[in-house]
Design goal:
Layout: H1 3-6, E1 13-15, H2 20-27, H3 29-32, E2 46-52, E3 57-63, E4 68-72, H4 80-98, E5 108-112, H5 124-136, H6 148-161
Parallel strand pairs: 1-2, 4-5
Antiparallel strand pairs: 2-3, 3-4
Helix pairs in contact: 5-6
C-alpha cells in the first residue's frame, strides 16, 4: 500500500528510479517507454525524477496538478535541457499510453531558486532525496545544510528497514 493510499490527503506519486533520467537522455523514449507499462502515470499528482549529472544529484518534479515541471538543484544550477526533455517525454508517453496528444500549453517549466542550498561538495544526494520527500508530502522545505547529518541517518534507517518514518 502506498503512502497516499494510507493517507488520502497526500498526493499520488510515482518516483522513477535513478537510471530513468540518464537512460531517457542518452537512449531516448523508446528505451524507457516500457518502464510505465503497469503505471497510469497521468493519473498521478506528482512524478519525481532523480537527475544524475555525473558528479551531482538533483531532483525534477512533474506536477500534474499545477501543470508545472520544476527542477530542484541545491547548488542553484539551471537545467533547461532537463525540463525540455521531461516535457518531450510527457508528449511521447501520452501518445504511446493514451493515444492522444499531450497538451503542454500553459505548463510552467522552472528551475526553482527559493530552496535550501547545499554549502559543500558532497551532500547533493541528501538534498535531492529530501526535496523529493518534502514535495511528495506537499510540505514546505524546512531543512538546511545543518540538517544533513540527521537527514542522512534518517535515509539510512528508512532504507535499512524498508519503511518511511512518519512526519507530521
Amino acid at each position: 500500500m502506498t503512502r497516499s493510499e494510507q493517507n488520502p490527503g497526500l498526493p499520488r506519486v510515482h518516483a522513477f528510479n535513478t537510471f530513468f533520467y540518464s537512460t531517457l537522455r542518452d537512449q531516448g523514449y523508446a528505451r524507457v517507454k516500457r518502464w510505465t507499462r503497469r503505471i497510469k502515470l497521468f493519473e498521478k499528482d506528482l512524478v519525481i525524477v532523480p537527475v544524475h549529472l555525473g558528479v551531482h544529484w538533483c531532483c525534477a518534479v512533474v506536477d500534474f496538478r499545477a501543470k508545472a515541471i520544476v527542477y530542484y538543484d541545491a547548488l542553484l544550477g539551471d537545467n533547461r535541457e532537463c525540463l525540455k526533455l521531461l516535457m518531450a517525454y510527457l508528449e511521447e508517453e501520452s501518445q504511446d499510453k493514451l493515444g492522444q496528444k499531450f497538451d503542454g500549453g500553459g505548463w510552467a517549466m522552472r528551475c526553482d531558486k527559493q530552496i535550501p542550498q547545499q554549502l559543500n561538495g558532497y551532500d547533493c544526494g541528501v538534498f535531492a532525496i529530501t526535496f523529493a520527500e518534502y514535495v511528495s508530502r506537499d510540505a514546505p522545505f524546512s531543512f538546511s545544510q545543518a540538517n544533513c547529518p540527521s537527514l542522512r541517518r534518517r535515509v539510512t534507517y528508512e532504507i535499512a528497514t524498508g519503511s518511511l518514518i512518519s512526519v507530521n
